[in-house]
Amino acid sequence: MKMKRMILWAAALLMCLGAVSCALAATAPAEAPEWAEVMLNERGYVDAGEYVLEDEDGGHWMYVNPTIRIQILRTREQPEKEKRSDAAQDFYCYTAEIWIDTENGELPYTTWADPSTPRDKMKPKYIEDIAQENPIVFCTSTDYYTYRVNRKEKTIYEGVVIRDREILYDKPAPIKKRYNFPTYDTLALFEDGHVESWQTKEKSAQQYIDEGAVQVYTFGPCVVRDGELTEFVTKLANRKLNPRHCFGVVEDGHYIDMICEGRLKKVNGSTGVMMGKMAEMMIERGCTLAVNLDGGQTAVMAFMGKQLNKVSTDLPRGRATKEVLCFGKKND
User: Fold this and answer.
1) Domain residues for 61?
2) Which pTM does this prediction carry?
3) In this structure, how many other beta carbons lie within 10 angstroms of the beta carbon of residue 38?
């Protein structure tokens, strides 16, 4: 009987620890960064209202209300060469760290360029314009799935596309096409805050919906899994320098969205980044899972209606798009 009581006590303790772990996963650090002047509660948010910091000169941005906290940091990255033949990498990087309280209904959402127009007739807009026309705190470009819609090429597929729990497309590429670019790996954000990434055809759109997916993007590759570089990064990724965009998860409800500038040597010296280095940077920022999204001239990040990163000289505002991935809504 004594042994049985000990087993039951241990099981109860494990359940309690699990509950504590889940509770902690929904919290943010209780102390604000040194560059922000705001008092936070024990869960890492504010009790009421909102706090906004926009410091472009210092490269700091922050937003926090009772259910969401976003901190953005601009850094200059100059990683050392791994191979003598590598081109020198020197670029500005924008890292957005996001915490959301899913238990109180804070979730990532989609905002369309023109919600009143059918999507097949909707005209794309620049991300900064979408951000200014709507009460969006933070938004980014996505998988640019619209480029793949109704293409005549038989090797181009829409992939699994879900927006705000609505299935738009369920047309994954064959598994044998996995290592073409994009790889058609998914980035799935769920209502409980967790994130998944699967190879094409490993999970259907309806399965994602049944399991609580809110948004599902198709691009890839998945560059970090279980806190380690994936096979694509270690064996297949090229060493070219490009502007890149990556989204990852540290733990449930705690995300990292990162954009690395490139093709701007004559503007601000940004060369772009190798995919492998980008993946390493996501691990350095604590990501257990990270997926490459569409980069190049598509990659744009906006905060409080203002575009943060530079894109290119010929498309300074990036590509026009029909949608953005959003976090947070500004108070009226």
Assistant:
1) 51-329
2) 0.91
3) 14
Closest CA to 326 of 140, 78, 101, 95: 140
- 121, 312 Cβ separation under 8 angstroms: no
Beta strand 254-260 pairing with 244-251: antiparallel
| pLDDT > 90? residue 278 | yes
What does DSSP assign to residue 259? E
Please check whether residue 29 lies inside any domain of the structure: no
> Domain for residue 105, yes or no?
yes
**Peptide bond connecting 33 to the previous residue in cis, omega within 30 degrees of 0:** no
* Residue 230 in tokens: 């994936």
Q: How far from chain centre, in Å, is Cα 131?
A: 17
Q: How many domains does the chain have?
A: 1
Cα 63 to Cα 1: distance, rounded to the nearest angstrom: 55
Please write the tens of the pLDDT for every residue from 65-78.
999 999 999 999 99
Produce one character per residue of 311-322: b if its CB has 16 or more CB atoms within 10 Å, e if not: bbeeeebbbebb
Buried b (16+ CB within 10 A) or exposed e, 266-304: eeeebbbbbbbbbbbbbbebebbbbbbbbbbbbbbbbbb
> With b meaning 16 or more CB within 10 Å and e meaning fewer, what string describes 183-211?
bbbbbbbbeebbbbbbbbeebebeebbee
